[in-house]
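Progress report, Aim 2. The chain analyzed during this reporting quarter is listed below.
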Amino acid sequence: MASDQLSSDPAFLAAYGAAICQIREDHGLDRKDLATEAGISYSYLSAIESGQKLPSAAVQDALSGALGIEASELLARANGEVEADPPPAARPDGLLHASMMLADVVVEDPSPTPPLPTDRAAPSMARMVSSTTDREPGISPTGALAELQALIPSLSSEDAAMVVSMARRLSGTSEPRRRTSSDRRYRGGSGRALRTEMYLHFWTLYLEELENQGLDWGHRRRPEPRSYFTTPSLIRGASLSASFARSRRLRHELYVNRGSRTANLELLHELEENRSIIEKVYGRPLKFEDPGEERRAVRIAEYRDGHISRAHEYGEYIDWFIDRGVRMRDAIEAYLGAR
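Predicted structure tokens for the chain:
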């Protein structure tokens, strides 16, 4: 990451520090953990998170690496350009909470998948509920089981599988995932909000399909429980991002953040001057977006309807992201070749 990519503007430093703090907390890390992982002192990290110090380029890279994200993604979060992952619930102990969370998220888009037979699900769920009831005062195993049995038949098979997977983790009956020392951000996985579980599941499927199609965009990348997935582009200071944006839309974009609004606008204007070449190769109209002075970064993007709750549409979303990724990469190569 170039040393000039982070502004010394106090407002931006405060936003940058707040973004680090939020991502760190979302991953279940305390400040000491992150400082150790990034190889910096606790006091230095404290000053960065509070917006008092400008981290060097090396420290920026170390922090983004310790958090498991690209440096450009950390800048994007600081600029508010991507939908923030929902804050994790305060360890939602007990299966009733998981059921209620799922009902809030997916009931509006039920899949017509045939209901899961409750007579086979009941015995294992009863055992799981009984193992968590001591952490959920006031809810009996019978009541929690009845709640689950009422909800499960209305869910798609993918959503039902998510409930069972979360229930197993809450009860401690699942095989724990193997984690490396650099993967400590997944600690406390049973306490993540269900939507972040869905993000993790979606990007896992996305990476698998990239591999199936022989595309190297996700090489050596891991799925993360967040609303976006970013890969490098051939343009300095710009990245390619597939994301679940606001207003129930999917967005595929060339995301530009060269560290200053002036530099970003210069590149956007240059790209727009070559719009005919870019859109001809891309094959569809694109939005060349400047969100305004309140946000530093700019983008070239295409949108469509979509939401992480619609698990029965995941295959369609993945196909769309991959198709737009191929188109955008071809368009970028044509633009660079015409310069």
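The mean pLDDT is 74. The CA atoms of residues 35 and 42 lie 6 Å apart. These observations will guide the mutagenesis work planned for the next reporting period.
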